[in-house]
Specification:
The complex is a heterodimer of chains A (516) and B (335). Chain A is built from 15 helices and 20 strands. In chain A, the strands form 4 sheets. In chain A, strands 1, 8, 9, 10, 11, 12, 13, 14, 15, 16, 17 and 18 form a 12-stranded mixed β-sheet that branches. By secondary structure, chain B is an all-alpha fold. Chain B has 14 helices and no strands. The chains are: A alpha+beta (516), B mainly alpha (335).
Chain lengths: 516, 335
Amino acid sequence: MFRFLLSIFLTVAATIGIGASAIATDLRIGFTVDALTLDPGNHRNRDNETLLRNMYDGLLTYDSNMRLVPELASSIERVDPLTYRLTLRHGVRFHDGSLMMADDVVFTFRRILERGAIDGLSSPRRDLLGPLEEVVAQDDHIVLFKLREPWPILPAMLPFQEIVSRSFIDRVGNRGIATQANGTGPFRLRHWRRGDALVLERFDGYYGGATDVPPVGPACVDRVIFRIIPESASRVAALLGGSVDIINELPPFAMRRVAEHPRTRVMKVNSTNTLYVALDNSVPPFSDVRVRRAANHALNKPLIIDRVLLGAAEPLNGVLTPAAFSFASDLPEYAFDPAASARLLAQAGYPNGVDVTLDTDGASKEMAEIVATMLTAAGIRTHLSVGEGSTLRSNWAPGGTPTGQMYLSSWGNATLDPSDIMFPTLHAKGRGNRARYRNAEVDALLETASVESDRARRAALYRKAQHLIHADAPWIFLWVPQDIYGVANHVTGFKPSPDSRIHLHDVCISDVVSRE
Amino acid sequence: MRPAIVLTRLAQLVPVLLGVSLIVFLIMALTPGDPVEIMLADQPASVEQAAALRADLGLDRPLAERFVLFLSNAVQGDFGVSFFHRRPVAEVLLERLPATIELTLAALLLALVVAIPLGAIAALRPNRLFDRLVTAGSLVGVSLPGFWLGILLLLLFSVHLQILPVAGRSTFACEVPAITSLLTIDSLLQGRLDCFGDAVAHLALPAITLALPVAAVLTRVMRASMLEVLCSDYIAFAEAKGISRGRVIWRHALKNALLPAVTVTALETGSLLGGNMVVETVFGWPGLGRLVVESIFVRNYPLIQAAVLLYALIYVLLNFVADLVYAWLNPRVRL
């Protein structure tokens, strides 16, 4: 029996050895989740978009510095506050060889805007288009975007919509495009093994991509293989074992191991997420601004970032991250000052401290424990309540009934536009106003800014709002975490992007390495 | 077995599945958490737009209406559209089912191949060194948590020795057209021995991790059962008649000792399906277990309901098959 088992094992090992000699310029990504669907117009998931964005291009895109640049469009101009004109590039082909025309753009956006347009289902991406009313073709290469009301962030939102082929969907149907792909991107779909891997191959007919993001031309590698590995330890093992070339969501505790490994390195970039502790402004003790400020002074953020996050974060004094439009760099710091916390608590009527509960989900438990310990040391005696993420999110949504008075939370701002984070989280009617924050002046500023077309005036409005919010301290302002990637040394041209998208057009393999 | 009995047993499935669907539906409905909030997360959408999306998904309807609608569609084979995949639930489930079946069968085969001989041999020489080793080993096997063992195996075989892959079902040199959708079988059917080896290599670590606790339980059951049978009068009688020891063990003892193992195997197969959830996550195995776990976290109600119904159906059918095997092994058992 033993010999039999041994012979099977050796056969298996030999088979893998044979596989190891295969030569290919394959780029293998260890990715956390699989695509839900391949239909760019029928999902609402960032990771899904990361996967699709290598097969589908948009009218505009962001470069790795989050600069908005034309992609399938050659130019964009604002005709009036309610109309934008986009001119399309000539000669762009879909993977099936057909030319991309204005009709495809109109079809793409109609499919998202019209209720029930996807076999009776409405696109969950509708909200990403704000007050966009319709898209019409002026000729084969010019399209007009018409708005119901001024919406200055339309260009910033266009990179999140990928252009599909009308004739292709007419042929395969909405069911077909959920599992097949026909984009204009640098890679075309070769095979989708559900839950296992997404295999793409270079599209040699690629028009080259955004001219503002060199190099322009076909992709560098022959194939891209997104291998789905949800477990972090397994993903790290895959990178160190040479099974993949890039992994996303490298946990901070594994950074040193990856950095010290002779074949791998760590790459980081500030994300677009703001991490904060929402303080329930509607109930005591956080209905008193002095207690909220005391909480902000209680945390030693530099120490946490240095020792716990191993430097993979940048402290924040307000809502916006430094890369965001209109970021107010002159906001004063809520410095770590336990004496100031004690003084503010005493002024608020809590000379002996106060008892509160911090809600957190399981994934953030360790960080919440650190925050709770520091708050407790400053007199805000914090009890930790660990719940399930979905339940907490629901409890802390407007109209929900949270059990605690604080919630360790985060909000993304993929466009880096303030309207994407300040309105939902800090306007009285915001869907994500977990702090139940109410300030009529801030509401008015946010409303005015959201329709203001002049960039300078808009920036000034948002800066003023940031100062008011900073003074009101509805949150404990924490930090912007970094996206961390583990990357094999033979990978070149990879630039982590703040919006967590993985652009692979320019990524190359510097030597022939592949086990696939 | 009489056909009427089979039909009765199959008819019993109906109330079981109805009960399971009601319980799952109620549990999911009473569990806090809003799939729309999860889907929209921190992306732009107003409260009104979120409400519209909720209505699109039918979540604004009364609970009873949703349940009746689910049942009436389910009996026609329509389990609705997955909130997040935006495709029919049945399609999403069927995509993942073969991977889970392949892993479960491999783990089961491995567990049986290891446990039955070990348990039987240990019982032949009780309290000797081999028996003690087997007993201690099975205790260790039962005690090791699957996720921990899985990661240890990964570190040893994939990172340090680099002889087995970390994740997935196969490499991409092996694109074998699906016949059964079980990669090992399909590659053999098409004469692709390289792909068979590749599929086995990918299967090895998750199957071992999944098989170990099952093998440990089965070994103990088999040992106990064999010991009991060996002390029976009919075994002593057979030996007194001068039948060789080997023949007594092989023809008379082993077959009867297998009876409890059959029951345990059926039950453990159910737990293998459940255990898949952890192992599939650790090894990135693209099966049903991982899909269900992900769906629970995001409150993908239609998919969870259909998946639990499927699990229940498989579980009931497995027990039914165990009864059939029972009758085959022991003709005194009448169904």
